[in-house]
Structures are given as structure tokens and as C-alpha cells.
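Quick start: read one record
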Amino acid sequence: MKNTRRALGLGLLIFAVAAVACKHKQPDNRLIIVKAVWGDVQGEHTMDVTAKVAALVKDNALTVTANPVTLDDPAAFKVKKLIVQWSKDGILAKRHATEGETIVIRADEIPPKPRLLIQKAVYGELVSGKTIDVTSIVTDLVVDNTLAVKPGRGVFGDPASMEYKQLRVDYTFDGVAKTKTGGEDQLLTLP
């Protein structure tokens, strides 16, 4: 009888542990707004609107129009854009909209896995080494697996005053490692 109770207790304990483990393996299908930035297209005058955008999530979906009425106006008289980084089921994605456009993320939508991943980005005078690490800035500029940036002091600062500067980006696209370099005030696009 004692062994039967012990075996039954052990069986219930194993069942409870297995149930908890299964619960933790279930995907988190909630829409999570990771970051939202609103400001001028050049990125000189921006503001974090993560809380405002997250408050607009209803029934696990988001609809937000990029306009100063909803999001305030960090760059008066300039064309603005909204970039929303979101996550669902542990996968990150970004959406962007220029002023007046609407971002819609459906309740049943799962973001595609990213194809373009920035490994390292440096900006400055590459030969002398007067550079700064701009990896996080460049990563934030990737939208829909593409990057389009015109490197300049307005975006990255000026690590080498009075010298010609370049942006070098080490990245992977579909798992293949590549590097691309673009000159100051020249459009650099990836892939």
C-alpha cells in the first residue's frame, strides 16, 4: 500500500512537471510592440512612441496611422516616417509608413524570418581607423529585409572631421556573408 501511494505520488509529480514543461514550450502568439520610432525621414528629429503604439494594439492586432495628431510632431514642416518593430511567436519584424500611411498588423499574422542581418557597421575614415561603430543604428534602419541609407554626419555624427568618410557594413543575406562600402552622402542599399 505504501509503495502504491509512493508510486502514485511520483507519477503525479512527473505528470505535473511534464505539464509545466509543455506549457512553456507553447508559442507566445501575442503581438508585442518592441520599439516604435516616429520622426523625419533623415532620422535627425525623432521620438520614441513605443508606448503610444503599443496602446493601440487591440485583439492581438494593430492599426496605426502615421500622423502628428496620433503621435505628436517631433519634426514640424518635414516629411516624417513611423517605424514599428514588432514580435510574434519570438520572431522580430519591422513595418514602416510615411506620414499619412497606415500600418496594419493582423491578429493571425506571423512575421517572416529575417533574411538580412547586420553583423557589424562602421562609419568614418576607414584607412586611418578614425571610425565609430554604428551597428545598432544601421540595424534599426533595416526594414523589410532591405537597407537604404545615405551615410553622413546627420545620421552617424562626424568621427573624422574634414576627412572623406565611408560606411562599411558586414552583413549576411540568406545566410551568406557579404560586405559593402558606401561613400559619404551616397546612397548605400542592401542587399
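The radius of gyration is 23 Å.
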